[in-house]
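Subject: design request, 704 residues
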């Protein structure tokens, strides 16, 4: 053993197996040992580097002052941490996060330097990809809603200084949905690409065209001389959009509805302008489509209703109309319930139970939001105390709005609130802040987090991945927890991009030693995949929706994790078994689509997907990857006849629905459900067989 004598067996095994590279040097900075991860990262074998100094890895990107700073920190403080560019044996330059510690003997003489590094090159690449995904639409590659809003803000600024007109137009296609339903998604995508192409012709430097979602586009035009110029531009857009489209061999006819508002006549911020243009678009639609409507600022009704809403919300806060509902967070691997997120609800006497999205955004810039924020914390602590008295000790996370976070007296309020509930153990309260709210004011947020830590309060960065994720920024915000945004989890089984992104986020959290939580987990397969990727904590409707406080104790008591999670918990399955997981999900989706059709929706399966057992996504897996990997297993072969039956019954159901109606189709559908359950049972058998096999292999590996 080459490691120094005092190393225990345990540290030896960490040294050998950690994914972090380790370099140990002597007092003269000569390398005395490196671990396998070092070789993996740098390409240098151990024998090649022993006796050398680490400058062997130097990339030449850092100047002498950089290294002087490093040595000074090592001399004075005994450790150093930072990002550093190094060079691999193959010449490639890469970025690493490096921590160096000095080990001294009893007399204070340097014995060893221990440097541990995490290769963050791939993380950076994943981040760049995240950035692209977060700001651009995947299909048209146009900016998305978030980026559009940001650019609009800048455009308003410069229009204000230059005394220019700035027109904001929101555009929604008429008849797109029907075409999409009739001709399928592929044709729909082609159409959207053509629309984007046409709209680009109208833009000039300084303008921005964005896809805001579905068939909705946003466009702002800068440098307009007068309203005549604007009218000409609008006429051109309408003409371009209504010219015939050619997709494959078919001609399609569509048109556009435009809502337009003009700065500075409508002198508001970006968010309000967007809302105004949206209202105007709605009116253009109401007028029958293929036209535009100009927002009329003085007649704005919305301003009125917003004021009313804020006033009404103020009464709700003072009265008793607000409640918190609680959504559990669980550890998928251990099956433990580890906390609750408090989510605000407004029990409105006339309108019923309102979700926060219906009222919070309108109140965001008003003062009621301040008292609301305080009230929410108070309600959560009160509830936690009640639960504690009843024997349920559980942590609660509370969402903090951007404005609340910026308040000077935030910390003071928090202290006051906590003091009212002295029985609560520290660590009960966690605060969730939006990535976008934290970024504007990193210094303030950093101080706040540190001050709160001494009060036993943890911080989570919410909706992680949707904002401005960057390494520097993550380092500056010492939040304990990162919550991956639900949009990524939603697509994780369907989209390679989403998968890459989630992998990137998990890698990042690991490198920065943060806890990672996945939100919006809706089915068991997503959970299995998350565990495999290294994210064990999850929240979502697939586990439990947000519930009234009275339901929580019983839920916690009777909660049992999904059998699939139990099955996979101790298994380190390989990424190559991932399609097996997706197959199950695909089959369920197929059955669901048929069910929706029976219940009156249009059929979203192609003819081949419906009738041919080799052409559905499950079939693709079964006769491709599945056969190659599991073809020898009886559990796998048992699936084939059942799946073939599925594709006999499926077309029958469709025919029944079209001919005799929903009732007959529903009857036959029951037989399909029986088959579905059989498939799930066999898949579970197969998964168990695969899991046993990999446990056996793990056993073999550790015995070797
Ligand atoms: P959030 O913090 O991202 O909260 C998660 C939202 O996702 C909740 O919506 C939750 O009900 C929903 N959700 C959870 N699991 C699933 C799932 O599996 N699928 C889907 N589709 N959705 C799921 P909710 O309650 O409507 O809250 C919306 C947002 O309002 C929250 O997003 C949060 O940003 C904000 N909010 C909620 N309560 C408060 C509050 O007390 N104060 C502040 N400032 N904001 C709040
Ligand atoms: Ca949240
Ligand atoms: Ca969230």
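Subject: RE: design request

Done. Sequence follows.
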């Amino acid at each position: 053993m080459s490691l120094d004598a005092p190393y225990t067996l345990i540290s030896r095994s960490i040294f050998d197996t950690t994914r972090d590279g380790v370099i140990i040097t002597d007092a003269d900075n000569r390398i005395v040992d490196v671990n396998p991860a070092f070789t993996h990262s740098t390409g240098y074998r151990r024998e090649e580097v022993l006796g050398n100094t680490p400058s062997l890895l130097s990339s030449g990107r850092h100047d002498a002052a950089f290294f002087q700073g490093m040595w000074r920190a090592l001399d004075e403080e005994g450790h150093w941490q930072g990002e550093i560019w190094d060079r691999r044996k193959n010449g490639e330059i890469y970025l690493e996060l490096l921590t160096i510690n000095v080990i001294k003997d009893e007399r204070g003489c340097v014995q060893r330097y221990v440097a541990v590094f995490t290769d963050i090159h791939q993380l950076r690449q994943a981040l760049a990809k995240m950035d692209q995904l977060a700001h651009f639409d995947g299909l048209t590659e146009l900016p998305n809603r978030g980026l559009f809003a940001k650019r609009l803000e800048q455009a308003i600024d410069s229009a204000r200084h230059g005394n220019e007109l700035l027109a904001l137009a929101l555009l929604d296609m008429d008849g797109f949905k029907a075409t999409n339903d009739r001709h399928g998604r592929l044709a729909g995508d082609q159409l959207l690409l053509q629309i984007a192409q046409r709209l680009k012709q109208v833009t000039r430097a300084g303008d921005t065209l964005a896809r805001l979602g579905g068939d909705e586009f946003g466009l702002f035009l800068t440098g307009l001389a007068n309203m005549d110029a604007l009218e000409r531009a609008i006429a051109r857009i309408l003409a371009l959009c209504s010219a015939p489209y050619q997709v494959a061999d078919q001609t399609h006819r569509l048109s556009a509805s435009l809502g337009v508002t003009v700065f500075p006549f409508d002198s508001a911020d970006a968010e309000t302008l967007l809302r105004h243009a949206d209202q105007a678009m709605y009116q253009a639609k109401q007028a029958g489509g293929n036209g535009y409507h100009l927002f009329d600022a003085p007649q704005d009704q919305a301003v009125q209703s917003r004021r009313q809403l804020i006033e009404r919300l103020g009464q709700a806060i003072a009265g008793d109309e607000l409640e918190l509902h609680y959504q559990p967070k669980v550890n998928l691997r251990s099956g433990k319930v580890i906390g609750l997120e408090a989510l605000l609800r407004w029990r409105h006497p006339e309108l019923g139970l309102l979700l926060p999205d219906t009222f919070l955004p309108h109140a965001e810039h008003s003062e009621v939001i301040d008292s609301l924020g305080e009230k929410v914390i108070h309600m959560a602590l009160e509830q936690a105390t009640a639960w504690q008295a009843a024997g349920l000790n559980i942590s609660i996370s509370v969402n903090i709005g951007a404005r609340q976070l910026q308040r000077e007296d935030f910390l003071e309020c928090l202290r006051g609130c906590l003091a009212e509930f002295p029985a609560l153990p520290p660590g009960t309260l966690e605060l969730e802040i939006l990535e976008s709210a934290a970024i504007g004011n990193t210094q303030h947020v950093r101080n706040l987090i540190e001050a709160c830590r001494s009060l036993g309060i943890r911080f989570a960065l919410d909706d992680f991945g949707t904002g401005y994720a960057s390494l520097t920024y993550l380092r500056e915000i010492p939040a304990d927890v990162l919550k991956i945004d639900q949009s990524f989890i939603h697509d994780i089984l369907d989209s390679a991009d989403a998968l890459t992104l989630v992998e990137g986020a998990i890698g990042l959290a690991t490198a920065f030693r943060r806890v990672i939580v996945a939100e919006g987990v809706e089915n068991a397969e997503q959970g299995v995949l998350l565990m495999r990727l290294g994210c064990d904590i999850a929240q979502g409707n697939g586990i439990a929706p947000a519930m009234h406080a009275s339901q929580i104790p019983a839920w916690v008591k009777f909660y049992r994790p999904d059998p699939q999670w139990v099955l996979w918990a101790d298994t380190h399955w390989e990424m190559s078994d991932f399609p097996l997981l997706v197959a199950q999900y695909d089959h369920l989706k197929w059955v669901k689509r048929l069910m929706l059709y029976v219940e009156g929706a249009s059929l979203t399966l192609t003819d081949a997907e419906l009738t041919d057992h080799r052409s559905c996504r499950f079939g693709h897996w079964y006769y491709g990857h599945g056969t190659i990997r599991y073809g020898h297993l009886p559990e796998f072969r048992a699936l084939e006849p059942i799946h073939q039956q599925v594709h006999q019954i499926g077309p029958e159901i469709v025919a029944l629905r079209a001919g005799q109606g929903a009732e007959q189709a529903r009857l036959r559908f029951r037989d399909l459900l029986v088959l579905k359950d059989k498939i799930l049972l066999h898949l579970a058998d197969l998964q168990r067989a695969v899991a046993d096999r990999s446990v056996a292999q793990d056993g073999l590996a550790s015995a070797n």
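The chain has four domains: 12-119, 133-299, 316-570, 576-697.
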